[in-house]
Each structure stands twice: as structure tokens, then as C-alpha cells.
Write a structure and sequence with these properties.
This protein has 8 helices and 8 strands; from the N terminus they run E-H-E-H-E-H-E-H-E-E-H-E-H-E-H-H. It is an alpha/beta fold. It has one domain: Aldolase class I (TIM Barrel, Alpha-Beta Barrel). Strand 7, helix 6 and strand 8 form a beta-alpha-beta unit.
């Protein structure tokens, strides 16, 4: 499959959020990535249900909701009702991960699991067949603009190998430090969904940057 681009609105101009969402609607982006942070699982707070619902009213692309929160089971139904197309929870935040994944699917959303940089890929071996996507964090979660962690390439290759037999259609998403300089390398080792925040929204021409990430040389 061709890779997907999911700009993260965490890096958007919150004073002009509708303008930025409408720009993404007109772009070659495939999804809109929405980072939900609670200040507990990660040392930052982003936004919650009212903002998600407002974004959903404007967005013409599927909303890729990434929950960086503790005890995400409490809110899965609300995020689904708020407009999420896919919901990704963190392996590190879920005591009963299989139950959480099933809850996401029962809510009508695609189910993803995210791994922090220190979390080994092989911990997903017992659940990988049930997942639609795995998100590999290529920075420590919580803030945008961080430096890409090079070990990510090895983890992508390991994940692709793990999924080959049980779930060959698994989407592999990368979040953190994605830019026009590493996009080809990420795709070549197996990534097929790329989240980009500052790379898109700090660009002089965000539409051109999205086009570059979608169609790298």
C-alpha cells in the first residue's frame, strides 16, 4: 500500500484551528492526528472532548486519535462518539490490553496500540493479530519538536517481521521527528503511516510540505 500522512494538530495554531483544519482538508493528507494528553501519563495537557467534537465538525479526513492518558478504558466510548475513526492506546497505560482493544472495536473504531521508545516490540506478540495498527513512538511522548530516536528503524523492522505471519495488513505508524529527510528511510523499513506535526505546521508552505511527505523523491 502507499503510505499515509497524518498531520498532528498538536502543532497547529490553536488561535486559528479552523483555518488549519480546513487547510488539511484541502491537502494530500490522509488522516488528521489528534493527540490527547492528560498531564499524568505524559507531562503535558492538550485538549479533550469539546475540541475533538469541534474538529470533527470541520474535518473531512478521518480522525486518528492517540490517547496518551492513564486508564483510557473510561473514555473510549466518548472518543468514539466525539468523532474518532481510529483510537490508539498505549501499551504502558493498559493493564488489560486485550479488553481495551476489544472495547475500541466494539465502539466502532479501528484499534491501535502505541509503544514508547523503551518498550520492546515483542511484548505485542500475543495481541498483534487483533490490532489494526501499531504506533511506534520515535520520540518520548508529551511534546512536539523533539529529536527523532534512531533505534526506531530497528523497531519497525522487528514489528514488520512479527506481523508478517499473523497480521500482514497491520499498519505501522511512526510519531515523532518525522520530516522530509527521513521519510524514505522510514517507508523502506516498513512504516506506512507517518505522523508529522512541527514539520508541517512550521513550514513556510504546509500544503507543499504535506505533498513532499506524501510523494518523496
Amino acid at each position: 500500500m502507499n503510505h499515509l500522512i497524518a498531520p498532528s494538530i498538536l502543532a497547529a495554531d490553536f488561535g486559528n484551528l479552523q483555518r488549519d483544519i480546513e487547510m488539511l482538508n484541502q491537502s494530500e493528507a490522509d488522516w488528521i492526528h489528534v493527540d490527547i494528553m492528560d498531564g499524568l501519563f505524559v507531562p503535558n495537557i492538550s485538549f479533550g472532548f469539546p475540541v475533538l467534537k469541534s474538529v470533527a465538525k470541520i474535518a473531512e479526513k478521518p480522525l486518528d486519535v492517540h490517547l496518551m492518558i492513564v486508564d483510557p478504558d473510561r473514555y473510549i466510548k466518548q472518543f468514539a462518539e466525539g468523532g474518532a475513526h481510529g483510537i490508539t492506546v498505549h501499551y504502558e497505560a493498559c493493564t488489560h490490553l486485550h479488553r481495551t482493544v476489544q472495547g475500541i472495536k466494539e465502539a466502532g473504531c479501528k484499534a491501535g496500540v502505541a509503544l514508547n521508545p523503551h518498550t520492546p516490540v515483542n511484548l505485542l506478540s500475543e495481541i498483534i493479530a487483533d490490532l489494526d495498527m501499531v504506533l511506534i513512538m520515535s520520540v518520548n511522548p508529551g511534546f512536539g519538536g523533539q529529536k527523532f530516536i534512531h533505534n526506531t528503524y530497528r523497531k519497525i523492522a522487528q514489528l514488520k517481521e512479527l506481523a508478517a505471519k499473523e497480521n500482514p495488513d497491520l499498519l505501522i505508524e511512526i510519531d515523532g521527528g518525522v520530516d522530509q529527510f527521513n521519510v524514505n528511510n522510514l517507508i523502506s523499513v516498513g512504516a506506512n503511516v507517518l505522523v508529522a506535526g512541527n514539520t508541517v505546521f512550521s513550514a513556510a508552505d504546509p500544503l507543499h510540505m504535506i505533498r513532499t511527505l506524501k510523494n518523496p523523491l
